[in-house]
Amino acid sequence: MFKRSLPLLLVLALVISAFVGCSKTPYELASGQGKTEKLALRQDEKTEQVLVWNLGADVKTIDPQLNSAANGGYIINNTFEGLMRESEGGNVEPAMAESYKISEDGLTYTFKLRDAKWSDGKPVTAHDFVYSWKRALNPKLDPEPSEYAFQLFYVKGGQEYFKGTGSIDDVAVVAKDDKTLEVTLVAPTPYFLYLTSFYTFMPVRKDIVEQDPLGWAIRPDLVVCNGPFKVAEYRSGDKFVLVKNENYWNEGNVKLDRIEVTLIVNESTVLAAYQSDKLDVIDRMPIREIPKLQAEDATFQILPQLGVYYYIFQVNKKPVNDVRVRRALTLAIDRNAIVTTITKASQVPATGYVPYGLKDADGNEFRKVAGDYGIDPHAAKVEDAKKLLAEAGYPDGKGFPEIEIIYNTMESHRAIAEAIQEMWKQNLGIGSKLINQEWAIFQDTRGQGNFTVARGGWAADYYDPMTFLDLWTSYSGNNDAQWDNKEFDRLIEKSKLKEGKGRYDLLYEAEKLVMEDSIVMPIYYYTAPIMVKEKVKNWEKSGLGHWFFGKTYIED
Q: Which helix (H) or strand (E) holds 336?
């Protein structure tokens, strides 16, 4: 949500009581070597508007079509801009598009682009959008296909091109002229405008990308941006410097001259830097300090965020290739203990994959209608778990091999992993080994399926259950479980052709398959603890978790 305005997620607020996920969530952040002494010093704050913001782990990429992580998405959201932009109240408003029209059948969108420029002064055109969207769909994109290509399958011909059964020329996104973009969809999609605000749909420039396909976005000497800020400096593992883009179409409302983006991972270091006025905005702090901060620091807030924290099983790896084992592991943990004694930020124990805060066609809370799938949010179901494990051939855990739990470096991830390790040992008699990895390595390990059990998290990209469910299609680049269920694919694809109650009936069936097959072990629904100095005004962090500083200013 945006600061002091949370109207769209009132239902979520009632459930969560206060707070917080590309996409891979803000808690998908990982380790790095940022240190307090590396913080860039502000320069003459009397004449310059400078914000110092800690991003956390270094990014894997800030290429809009290649990024799938929250931290990279935060940078992209401030340096690039799509046809639409998320606005206050969880809506979207025209951004690069000055206006748009939707055909009566809901299939054709015609966007009229405003007079906007890239940071080098060249015009942003409809051809840039055509190039970028088709680039995201390219099945041979270097170094690997976009993990978010499936988000463009709503465009007619998109899925066929990606799967190799169609031509790039059949992808129905067309530049009618420099300022007119026409898009034809496979079926009416009520959240399509939200999708056009997402980073995968943001434009990039062909002539720039082709000069350095892998590194262009982090090269200040090469990158061009169309958002409120542009990349002026990048030091791997140390910092970004973003400066005001004087060619941004709305630059008159951009008040900050510069954003110093630090890459500090250690939560204690982050909090110490914030408390000594070396940082202005943070969204990570030691979990042990949260109760004290909540009681004593007026700048500490817990915001709602539409997302879910879970463990994921690689369903082809023994012993979790047996659904009875996955189900036993899922039932054997105490979610309430985790959120009350470890995370302590008003998180809600998760009993299903889709979080609270989304309603179906009848106005009912999706989570409540879908049910809890036999998961007790308040305690472990030890006897049920032991029975399933025995049925799988491991009575009282006998003969069960030690399994590895991988997670990326962060205090809360480690603490949760240690708690689950102990719960499995006490309740099932099985052993596990904890392995933490640096963020970039962790993303690759999980994406390649080289794990048995891994930490996961997902924050909504738009306000619809589909943003969680289509993750698990067999062709999704984010399907780290390596799960291939043709019935699930059929339900998702069929739901995209339906509207109203019929569509939601299919989505309920789809989540049921995910949960009955236990490909994930939901743990809790996110909230977002943040701290922002009082002098920082008009900042935005949406219910989807996105930071935006395009209207922010400093008031000393």
A: helix 335-338
Handedness of CA 82, 83, 86, 87 (dihedral sign): positive
Quick one: which of 309, 308, 306, 311 has its CA closest to 519? 311
Q: Which residues make Cβ contacts (< 8 Å) with residue 221, sequence separation at least 6? A: none
| Integer Cα distance of 133 and 409 in angstroms | 33
DSSP state of 24: B
Can you list the domains of the chain with their CATH numbers? Answer: 32-264 (3.40.190.10)
d(CA 307, CA 459): 4
What pTM was computed for the model?
A: 0.87
**CB-based contact 79:186 (threshold 8 Å):** no
* Chain centroid offset of residue 534 CA: 27
The 10s digit of each residue's pLDDT in 351-402 is: 999 999 999 999 999 999 999 999 999 999 999 999 999 999 999 999 999 9
Which residues, including other chains, have CB under 8 Å from residue 123's CB and lie 6 or more apart? Answer: 115, 116, 117, 178
Residues 6+ apart with CB under 8 A from 315: 321, 326, 481, 482, 483, 517, 519
Looking at residue 182, what is its pLDDT?
98
